[in-house]
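Quick start: read one record
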Amino acid sequence: MRILLDAWAILELIKGSDKGAKVEEIVRDSTLACTTSLNLYEAKYKLTGRYGEARIDKMLDEVRATTQILPITEEAALAAAEVKLQQKQLSAVDCNAYAVARLHKLEFVTGDKGFTGLEGVVLV
């Protein structure tokens, strides 16, 4: 399975939670693990204040070492707008990550129940 991790999945991995252990298993079993630059932004933003800058950088370096970081292209941004129009409860960052996953034919790994029922979603 080829996957894209959203920020929630990255944060659960970093926290080492039970759900993070499930995400880790999915990553281990995948043939390709990716995330987006926006997901790194969101993870860093949410970690700031809980940890020092050096520790956050080390945590995100570990994510970078095990995932391919995909950019948000114009095509992905426009596809994300279509997702957002249909799924208003989802954040713009999440819609962009989901659009990148769909464009790259990756399964989207998330804990966000707002993605329930959407194609290509692995809900943890």
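The beta strands are 2-5, 32-36, 68-70, 107-110, 121-123.
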